[in-house]
Amino acid sequence: MAHINLLPWREAARKEQQTQYLSIITAVALFSFLTVFLISSIYSARLDGQQKRNQYLQTEIAALDRKIAEIRNLNETKNNLQQRMSLISQLQGSRNLGTQIMDEIVKVVPSGVYLTSLEKKGSALLLIGKSESNNRLSNMIRQVEDSELLSEPLLEFIETGRAPGRLLSDFKMHVRVQGFEALQGEAQ
Asked: Which ranges of the sequence are coiled-coil (predicted)?
């Protein structure tokens, strides 16, 4: 006779396969969840670490910016002091300039030329006087050109004397003082 198995073995096998399937799916889901959780934790820790480093760098940058601003202020103060010191040294060096100018005028004015007025306007001198001859006046101009302190003589006019018996000519001359321009530029 044929062997008939009346036991529901197919259903039992199907249930067995279904439980195995569910246990595998549960294990895979649990493994996936743990993997995602670990990766998320690792990246979260790295992100927190990077944020702490960024905060530290921002704090240090702010401190360095304050120091840079302080250094700029110190450099500005230093430059101001250096300018003042150079101006003081130039003033100290040129404090005898008036005496030197008068000494140089005595050297360049030849005999026969008489100064009646001397005016200083900035770095220029205005010389007004009388001359016995034009040759003496031209000698004075040459000596001014050769001078180390005076330069750029400019004769504005020569006028022959009108008084009878006196042969003096009136003249007006502009002369520039060398070295005085640099002093004036520094003072301003």
From this structure: 47-91
